[in-house]
Amino acid sequence: MKCSKCGENKADYFLSWGRQESPRVGFCSECAESVGMLAALRRVESQIRGLGGAGDDSQTLSCYDLPVEFADSCGACGTKLREFERGFRLGCPECASVFGSMLTGYLSMLGCSCADGVSFYRGPSPTAFSERSKLLKLKNRIEEEIRTEDYASAGRHKEALLELEKKVECRAKSRIETSKKAAQGFPAALSVGASVESMINSGGGCAASGNDTGIIWSRVELRRNFSGFNFPGRLSPSRRELVELLAVSLLPKGFIASSSRIEMKPLSTIERLALGERFFMRRPEARSSAVINRDGSMSALINDIDHLSASAFQSGPDGADVPALMKKALKAVEGIDKNAEPAFSPRFGYLASSPKYIGSGASASILLHLPYSFLSGDTFFWPDRAERYSVKVEPFRGVNLEHHGFYLVSALVGFGQTAEEIAVSTGDFAMRLINREAELRGAFSSDDENRMNRALPRVIHNAQRSHRLSYQDALRFVSIFSVALDRGLIEMPAFAVSDVLPAMSSAGIMLADGKTSSINECEARRANLFAEIVGAWLFSKKSKGSRAVVAGRTRSRE
Known about the structure:
This protein is of the alpha+beta class. Helix content is 44%, strand content 11%.
């Protein structure tokens, strides 16, 4: 086909309208540059077959086969452009190249700047990535030498390429054998039912104090995928099993020795929901498996959204030490960076299935109980302050910034910061909120106490006699009780926040009852359970003349 502009030279670059029978327009190299076609191709690099993700000077149009046409899917895993646009979910490491500019736009909307050629990822490259980089450079160099008819140099570099590929293949086979040996001594899967329920309720419980203003728990998570494998949503059963063996072999031996394994497929939907709510902040996929430390401080999720997600968990007053937790989680995945080849892009960093976690592949969150901030309305000023720290503040349950005293501080995005920076920024902002809580506690006046004292009878009445109770209302009552106990306005034992978190959630209620319930049924059941708990809090101490008896007796319930 001749060039459509000059009509003399052979056309090297083509445009079409997506249908095989549609007309094609072709340009030679000189005319393509003059009409601005090459500039347009660079702007939409993610949609160009074989070119997406070319963001550095070492990769140019001359490195790729011609003609170049727009790609409508990833050639490695088959993820279609329309699927990616709809869900922004990667299917394999190559998707980051194919949909590169669309990722650029998505990440820019989330606040990451790529101006002046600055890369999205600012952290170090993993050790295993160096060999992959050498392979890519050798392949590009050989293609360039063949294009320029320098066959002697191409032959020499071809020998070096084959030798390096053989070396990488031998290491991969050795890694698989090591994975199989490591999996032989792996703990047996936990049985469903009581074992799962005991795992959810054991270890890492919330502090058992009625006036525990501050931290309930903190958690960090690191996600890693393996290069050369489709992401779990597109893995075949045999490849999924291989990924699981590889992931197990890379986890620290000390962690495995003190952990139990739970296969998600035999579990009911309720059990998976409750388990995910307790340890992973999401419901695990049925295809995945979990490895959970017996004290609840560490967990790993294999073949869920990503190949491996390692989490570190801590509760109680010292739960704010997020940087220490980040080091703990990094230790759990450092074997991937050293002994396996992670899915990594020098432009975007570690590749997660969700673009939200692209970069360091890390997230951090801290659950705070701040009842004085809740009562004072100070939470209205939090969103603007949080943006300066690249974190977000949201209610633990509810929408927008619903007031109930339990708030989740979490990292906003992961691709613009290193894992350590994410931990520090999240922990620093949480401590600012805790310090502000202390200021509000000190400024709580006698007038505030009088208003609280007048409201307590109504609060206790509603807590004990509601026919339906939302999870948010239960959290709200706990915060009010915490302030009343802290100010000496009510006499009651130091109740356990763990009676409410996560026991009063819908998942916790359904798990305890052993059956699926509707929202209305859960709210009715929650009202009964919460009334019993409040009754135990208020009347477990015999105290004559106590203000706790202002509400009378708990009415009988079915």
